[in-house]
Specification:
With 909 residues, the chain is of the alpha/beta class. The protein has 4 domains: 5-34 and 40-143 and 180-222, no CATH class; 225-286 and 520-645 and 687-739, Zn peptidases (Aminopeptidase, 3-Layer(aba) Sandwich); 291-518, Glucose Oxidase, domain 1; 747-903, Transcription Elongation Factor S-II, Chain A (Up-down Bundle). Helices cover 36% and strands 14% of the residues. β6 (369-373), α11 and β7 (395-399) form a beta-alpha-beta unit.
Length: 909
């Protein structure tokens, strides 16, 4: 709670790279930047024990402090002190001071703040001494020294030091004579009066909690903000990231396996080593499937269907080495068990429109086996299999075509970035756009005691078996259907060599697809959490998440993100150990079972849904963090301004430019979130503004055994430059979100984005032939009017931040209680604007997909759609249910309008 009147030192805006590196001539004497706060960002071997507070650091050696700030100083009774109690006996004073120093040295008294390895109490960490300094008194009055002189050993003492009877008597009974003149009495009275004033001031500051509450509320300002930014950037250790990635990719670690558990404990131990305030292991019991060694087969059968005349190799060659153990078998997560036979039919990318084209050509697909390729118009793997199921196929085979990710594009792995001939892209075929998380507990967490559906009850699983294969195996299959069905159009032709592209039909050779597997409906998985408590709004959190499980070795996906997150967590652990505390809590989370269906993160969100809707300010996601050199950011429109400022500070030494300059050169911008990683439950279910960051833009052997440490070290990011750069970006984002007095959200961009989303929806409906006039199938005007209300409210809302700054600056840095309370409420309203866009009515959310509550963002029913904004409206239009479409339009407009009203209901706005 803000104090009655609190001292606030305004944090300067985050400088660009050029501003941050600009300094005076003195800076050339050291390769490390000056640190006004005393927080040294140099490597450990360069750093002597230094305080995070600038005890006595001259201002001319550092950047000018904000107005109203005085660095603290330590006064002694040495010569030259401006506050002294010395008397005329200067030699005696010097002797006494020297004696005190010798005694302190003998006692080895240390200042814990000067020792980065020492721990300080939470009380001492929260005292903002760097913002307050004692007045430099210039008293020259002297209090007479009251000296009691004991007798010296007399010459009459014997050799053993025993005095005479008379001398011992004098030692016992002799008292000094104190002579106090009227002048001395006056001086004593003056000093006592001054002491009473000082004690009264101390009482006012500490007992009234004026001093203490201010330090708790702006403890992050104990340290110069720029020094903290420099610290987190320069403490990022690319070599340590490399070592972490080498370890995390040293063996396969599918969710729920022994390898996965071992790495979960490694993450846990790393968090414990960083001495976070809380470290938690959170277990869930979820449905997972695992392949059997001899339980999978793809075969071409003889004409009578009794004998295999060809069998697919299925597996990749071993690339992990002896120490890695056996690499993961090729399979699909959440696939259906089965052993089926049927004629083989090629169906391009496996979209609904592709299957419709087959039907339009008169090709009977009932009882057939589908062969489709990855990527393309149907990106979601599970929906490829579902579309085949809906078209009457009894099984589905998916392969990676070299025209999409192979030698046609460039050099294959391990020498290049593309999928080799034996590379298999594994993946999950659960229907994540329909049911997210554990498919047997949609809408509630998968704890052991909770109820569970049966496998045949859930809408989140496909009902036909499927397997992934390499293009070397697909080549044989495609060659065997030559002359059957129809010649393929150009858009259906891939890059597999020595193939004449035909569709196949019911007369094609018979193919057997066998997929027998181990099903575990209550497999234990492990999420690991760590937390640094905030000191002003500790209940509010900035969450950083990355999943740990991988289909194979997972160098890029996901463990480049794991290694980066662990290093950033280490840096923040060092900051906390030195006494720094954020205003809001910071939480690091290692998710499990993401590869299957975003299970770990979704179960956490479902368990903590109400808390997240009230307390989570932001979620930052890392997944396939590094696979290329182009920076990408996708997220809520809230983050555009912050991301732009942060990447303007991070310098790419390879391209010799800031990330912002490179971003603008490529005409990049903040992208929309998709539906393929752990940000989905936070953004679409809990309404937590979410951001996903990465370096990509180039192909890599995704979800194959070739996505390993050797590939990353030789091809992906040989010097681990981009791992280090992304760690810097992440650390700076966390600093700004967790420790700025006012959240750096961009509501203006949110309002503009809503208007753009509506325009895109309008254009999409026009392409669908949906009339906006005449017969009035639907009317989007209510949403347009609601967005206009948002724009007006945001404009009014954003006027308060400069008002707050002006008032604080005008008061010479003091923030009264009322203004502080309104600032906290301002932050809350800004963050809950996203939450206010949730449809929280009973049964609310997207019809038939009620896990997804956000009215603006959410996965489309079928990801053939170009955009996912306003998914409930799009679903209804796709189904040509005009009454439902209009109902959703009116409901969404009402929710957006109410969010705009709530935003400016803050007192004084």
């Amino acid at each position: 709670m803000p104090s009655e009147k609190s001292r606030y030192v305004p944090a300067p805006p985050i400088p660009s790279y050029d501003e941050a590196t600009a300094g005076d001539a003195s800076s050339s004497r050291s390769p490390w930047p000056p640190s006004p706060s005393g927080l040294d960002a140099r490597p450990d071997h360069e750093v002597e024990a230094q305080s995070l507070l600038s005890h006595g650091r001259p201002l001319d050696q550092a950047r000018r402090a904000p107005a109203g700030y005085r660095p603290p100083h330590v006064e002694t009774d040495d010569e030259g002190s401006e506050w002294t109690l010395e008397d005329d006996d200067d030699d005696s004073d010097a002797d006494e001071a020297a004696q005190v120093r010798r005694e302190m040295q003998e006692l080895e008294i240390e200042d814990p703040l000067n020792d980065p390895n020492s721990s300080t109490s939470s009380w001492s960490k929260r005292m903002g001494f760097s913002r307050f300094s004692l007045p430099r008194w210039k008293w020259r009055w002297r209090l007479p020294r009251l000296t009691v002189r004991l007798p010296r050993q007399s010459d009459s003492d014997d050799a053993n030091g025993q005095g005479t009877e008379s001398s011992r008597t004098r030692l016992r009974w002799r008292f000094p004579t104190i002579k106090i003149t009227s002048r001395d009495a006056l001086l004593i009275f003056g000093r006592l009066l001054a002491l009473a004033v000082v004690l009264g001031t101390v009482y006012l500051l500490f007992v009234s909690d004026l001093f203490g509450s201010m330090s708790r509320r702006f403890n992050g300002q104990m340290f110069d903000p720029e020094a903290v930014r420099q610290f987190v950037q320069l403490r990022v250790d690319s070599d340590q990231i490399r070592d972490s990635l080498r370890h995390f990719t040293s063996f396969a670690h599918i969710a729920g396996t022994e390898g996965d558990y071992a790495l979960a404990m490694d993450v846990h131990n790393s968090f414990v080593k960083n001495a976070f305030d809380q470290v938690v292991v959170d277990e869930y019991y979820v449905y997972l499937n695992y392949p059997k060694k001899d339980g999978r087969a793809v075969e071409i059968l003889s004409a009578d269907g009794k004998k295999a005349i060809w069998t697919a190799l299925l597996e990749e060659r071993e690339v992990g080495g002896e120490t890695a153990g056996h690499q993961t078998y090729a399979f699909h997560g959440h696939s259906k068990s089965g052993d089926v036979k049927g004629p083989l039919i090629y169906a391009n990318y496996g979209s609904r429109s592709d299957f419709k084209k087959l039907a339009d050509k008169g090709i009977n697909t009932n009882g057939a086996i589908a062969l489709v390729r990855h990527h393309g118009t149907q990106r979601n793997l599970g929906q490829k299999v579902k579309a085949a199921e809906m078209a009457g196929f009894v099984g589905c085979i998916v392969y990676s075509d070299p025209a999409d990710n192979g030698f046609v594009k460039g050099e294959p792995a391990p020498q290049g970035r593309f999928m080799p001939s034996d590379g298999v892209q594994r993946g999950s075929v659960s229907l994540s756009n329909w049911v997210m998380g554990d498919v047997l507990t949609p809408g509630w967490e998968s704890k052991e005691e909770k109820p569970r559906m049966k496998l045949d009850q859930t809408k989140g699983l496909v009902k036909i078996p499927s397997l992934p294969i390499a293009w070397r195996d697909a080549q044989v299959l495609l060659q065997h259907i030559e002359g059957f069905g129809e010649p393929c159009p150009k858009s259906w032709k891939g890059g597999v060599p020595d193939v004449k592209w035909w569709s196949g039909n019911s007369s094609s050779p018979i193919v057997r697809l066998k997929n027998e597997q181990d099903d575990n409906e209550k497999q234990k998985v492990w999420n690991i959490y760590a937390k640094i408590d905030g000191i002003e709004q500790g209940e509010k959190s900035i969450i950083i998440g990355n999943h740990r499980d991988a289909w194979a070795f997972g160098a890029s996906e996901p463990n480049s993100g794991t290694a980066i997150m662990l290093d950033v967590a280490r840096v923040f652990g060092e900051l906390a150990a030195r006494g720094w505390r954020p205003l809001r809590s910071i939480e690091f989370m290692s998710w499990d079972a993401e590869e299957y269906n975003m299970i770990g993160s979704t179960e956490f969100v479902e368990k903590n849904l109400d808390i997240l809707q009230q307390q989570a300010f932001a979620y930052i996601n890392l997944d396939g963090a590094v696979s290329g050199r182009d920076f990408h950011a996708a997220g809520s429109p809230m983050f555009r301004k912050l991301v732009t400022k942060v990447i303007d500070r991070v310098f790419d030494p390879v391209s010799n430019a800031t990330l912002l300059a490179l971003w603008r050169e490529k005409k990049s911008d903040l992208e929309s979130l998709g539906s393929e990683s752990d940000y989905v439950p936070f953004q679409d279910m809990a309404g937590t503004s979410s951001l996903d960051i990465s370096f990509g833009g180039e192909a890599h052997p995704s979800h194959s055994s070739y996505d390993n440490f050797h590939w990353m070290e030789s091809i992906g990011d040989p010097e681990f430059v981009y791992h280090g750069l992304l760690a810097q970006v992440l650390a700076l984002l966390v600093i700004e979100l967790a420790d700025r007095p006012i959240l750096p959200f961009d509501l203006g961009n949110y309002a503009a984005s809503l208007d753009r989303y509506l325009s895109e929806l309008w254009q999409w409906t026009d392409k669908k032939g949906v009339s906006q006039g005449g017969d009035q199938k639907i009317n989007l005007e209510p949403i347009r009017e609601a967005i206009k209300h948002v724009e007006k409210s945001v404009k009014q809302f954003e006027q308060w931040e400069p008002y707050w700054e002006q008032n604080v600056i005008a008061a010479n840095g003091w923030e009264p209680t009322g203004l502080g309370i309104r600032r906290l409420d301002y932050n809350n309203r800004m963050s809950t604007f996203e939450t206010d866009l949730l449809d929280l009515e009973p049964g609310g959310g997207i019809p038939n997909r009620t896990q997804f509550k956000h009215v603006v963002f959410g996965p489309p029913l079928w990801d053939e759609l170009d955009e996912a904004q306003f998914p409930a409206i799009r679903d209804a239009i796709e189904a040509e249910d005009w009454a439902l479409a209009q109902t959703m339009i009116d409901k969404i407009a009402k929710i957006i309008d109410q969010a705009a009203t709530t935003l400016v209901s803050v007192e004084g706005l």
